[in-house]
Amino acid sequence: xxxxxxxxxxxxxxxxxxxxxxxxxxxxxxxxxxxxxxxxxxxxxxxxxxxxxxxxxxxxxxxxxxxxxxxxxxxxxxxxxxxxxxxxxxxxxxxxxxxxxxxxxxxxxxxxxxxxxxxxxxxxxxxxxxxxxxxxxxxxxxxxxxxxxxxxxxxxxxxxxxxxxxxxxxxxxxxxxxxxxxxxxxxxxxxxxxxxxxxxxxxxxxxxxxxxxxxxxxxxxxxxxxxxxxxxxxxxxxxxxxxxxxxxxxxxxxxxxxxxxxxxxxxxxxxxxxxxxxxxxxxxxxx
Length: 287
Hints:
alpha+beta, Ribosomal Protein S5, domain 2, four-stranded mixed β-sheet, two-stranded antiparallel sheet, 6 strands
């Protein structure tokens, strides 16, 4: 499920910014970007974030910026001089220009390094407070998105339940058409006087049993009811169970289509499938 939360706090001459965002994913994957002197807190942060977001591909960004420019970065002077000496010698040897050598050296890894100070516990407490605020904003974002998603899911399930009721008027007509078609084909093939009515009725009953959709209708109605019950449940993590129920609904709808023997019922089944696909898309975005 997607989500976004951001929080900012002032601490002395510094500004602490925490940003948490997530994208849809079946698994939990946390990527973090934190100041180097807080790296030892990464494992604890990872467990904490996983416990909050439950599932999804999340990015956590923590920035600590100083207002007076003391960002904790330094220049590795010996390494800088070594690169400058060697690059200047190469430029002299090849007769090339020396313009831009300094800028190029500064982009080389480890030339400009961060100064890793010990963890300031007071600063870390402020960072923790900012993280909690960002997570709170993140969860509010998810709740708002979840409410809109729930409204749409209820609408789609209601549509399927309504269309299920619309099938009833077409059931009796398809039985009559099947009986007439079988009798007509049999009379054309064998002749009317050679048709055994008793055997014909047995064959009709056999076909009626094959195309009977009562069980599928009952099960689909139960699945729709169970789906709504899960939406009403107080649990926050419902995605996997709703996905499973959606799969079961799909099986019953497909069987209804296979047994339809009616253009009108097939039309309703197609509309059901359209709503079911929208349900699956929404569930894929949920936790």
